[in-house]
């Protein structure tokens, strides 16, 4: 297993999750978000809550520790990394990754 850090942001909700990434942007259909995928987005909004509830972790390009994805992730008990600046550009759909919501690091997995 590779432990190569591919992205770093602010750890906003502690814990770790591994899985397949799903780039999910505002306006996408929340009903189609796959169970236990890692959500990669620019910034969540209230229309994305149903999809967030299916996610095993959340990564956002924007936001701080008091942003929408950070607060909801903590409430749901799932890891979250915010303010990655380019997560939606660097992470591909289906890419296997690990999210460390404490350190704010995203790892590429083999």
The unreliable regions are none
Strand order of the largest sheet: 1-8-7-3-4-5-6-2
Q: Helix- and strand-based class?
A: alpha/beta
The CATH superfamily label reads: Phosphohistidine domain
Please write the CATH class name: Alpha Beta
Number of strands: 8
Largest sheet: 8 strands, mixed
Tell me the count of domains: 1
What does this structure look like?
The chain is α/β, with parallel strands linked by helices and 110 residues long. It has one domain (4-27, 34-105): Phosphohistidine domain (Glucose Oxidase, domain 1), CATH 3.50.30. The chain has helices at 49-54, 68-76, 87-90; strands at 4-8, 10-13, 16-23, 38-41, 57-60, 80-82, 96-100, 105-108. Helix 1 (49-54) links the parallel strand 4 and strand 5 (57-60). The termini are close together.
Topology readout:
Layout: E1 4-8, E2 10-13, E3 16-23, E4 38-41, H1 49-54, E5 57-60, H2 68-76, E6 80-82, H3 87-90, E7 96-100, E8 105-108
Parallel strand pairs: 3-4, 4-5, 5-6
Antiparallel strand pairs: 1-8, 2-6, 3-7, 7-8
């Amino acid at each position: 297993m590779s432990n190569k850090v591919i992205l770093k942001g602010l750890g906003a909700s502690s814990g770790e999750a591994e899985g397949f990434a799903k780039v999910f942007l505002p306006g996408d259909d929340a009903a189609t978000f796959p169970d236990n995928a890692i959500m990669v987005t620019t910034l969540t909004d209230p229309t994305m809550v149903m999809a967030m509830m299916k996610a095993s972790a959340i990564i956002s390009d924007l936001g701080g520790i008091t942003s929408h994805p950070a607060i909801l992730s903590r409430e749901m008990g799932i890891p979250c990394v915010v303010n990655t600046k380019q997560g939606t550009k660097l992470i591909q759909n289906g890419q296997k990754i690990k999210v460390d919501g404490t350190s704010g690091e995203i790892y590429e997995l083999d």
